[in-house]
Amino acid sequence: MGFMDLRGVDLALLPVLQDLLRTRSTTLTAKRLGCTQSSASHALARLRKQFGDPLLVRVGRSLSPTRYAEELAPRLEAALGSVAGLFGDAPSFSAATLDRAFSFAGTDFSELLILPHIVRQLARTAPLVDLVCSAVGGEVERQLQDREIDLAFGTSFRARAGLVMKKVATDDLALLARKGHPLRDRLDVERYAAAGHVLVAPRGTAGGAIDVALAALGQRRRVAVRVSNFATAAALVAETDLFTAMPRSCALVMVKRLPLLVRELPVHVPKFTFSLAWNEQLTRDAGHRWFRSVVEEATARAFSKKLP
C-alpha cells in the first residue's frame, strides 16, 4: 500500500462527523461537543469539501446521510476506535495464556538465589512461558540494546542509550572459608591480605571493592584464582586454604551445601545494590512488565529486604 498524503486533511473534524452521523443534527452535536451550532455547521461544510460529498442533507427538520455517508459510518467508527485505543489502557493481559520465552541474564548467584522462586511462580501462573538463562558477560549492555536479552540482573550495569535500570535490592559482602581453616577465628587485615584469594569476576575483570578498601589501608591481597561464578569459588574454598568473598545472601546458601564457614570481612566494604536492566522499548510491553514483576517479587523473597 502506497503512502497517503494527509497534510491537507483535518483529522480533528472526524469526531465531529462521527457525532453528526449519530445525532443527524448540528444543534445536538454542538451541545454534545461543547461548541456553538454555527461551529458545527461550519465543520460540516469543511467535511463536505474534504470528502467531496454532501454527507448529510436536509430532509424536513433533520439531516439525512447520503449513501456515501452510510457506507462511511462503520469505517469511521472503527478508525476512531482504533485511534482511541492508542491512548487508552492496553488490552487485558492474562499470564495463564501467555505463550512466550523470556531470556534472563544474571550470575550463577542470582540463579541460585532467585531462579527457584521465578520457576515456581511460572509453573503456577504461566505454564506456557519458557525461560532461557545466561550469564552476565561483558557484552550484556549491547545484548540488552539489541534485545538479545529481555532482562538482566546484576550490580554494575553501564549506562547505555535505550536501557532502563531499576534498583531492586541491597546486600553486603561476607567472607567464606573452609571449616577448620587455620585463620578462621584470628583473622585481621594483615593476615587476610597475605592469604590467597579466589576472585569471582563474571565479566572477567580484575579487582573490586575489597581491593580498593585494602589499598586505602596500605594493603594488597593476592588473587590466586579468578573464576567466573560463585559456585566454583565456593567449591575451591571448601577444599583449600583460600578465601573468597561473595554477597551474604549467596554465602548463606553455600554453607548449606558445602563444609564452609561464613565470617565478617576484616575490612569495611560498603553495601552494594542489585538492579534489573532492560531495553526501554519493552517498558510498556504487558508480558515483559508482568515478567519483571515476577523477578522483583522473587528478589524480595530472596533478600532480607527490598531497597527503600
Task: Explain the overall architecture.
With 308 residues, this protein is an alpha/beta fold. The protein folds into three domains: 11-86, Arc Repressor Mutant, subunit A (Orthogonal Bundle), CATH 1.10.10; 98-170 and 272-302, D-Maltodextrin-Binding Protein, domain 2 (3-Layer(aba) Sandwich); 173-263, Periplasmic binding protein-like II (D-Maltodextrin-Binding Protein, domain 2). It contains twelve helices and twelve strands. The protein has helices spanning 14-23, 26-33, 37-51, 67-87, 108-113, 115-125, 140-145, 189-194, 209-216, 230-238, 248-254, 286-302, and strands at 56-59, 62-65, 101-106, 130-135, 151-154, 163-171, 173-178, 196-200, 222-227, 243-247, 260-263, 272-279. Strands 4-3-5-12-6 form a five-stranded mixed β-sheet. The protein has a five-stranded mixed β-sheet with strand order 9-8-10-7-11. It has a two-stranded antiparallel ribbon with strand order 1-2. A hairpin with a 2-residue loop joins strand 1 (56-59) and strand 2. The two termini are 52 Å apart. The model has no long low-confidence stretch (mean pLDDT 88).
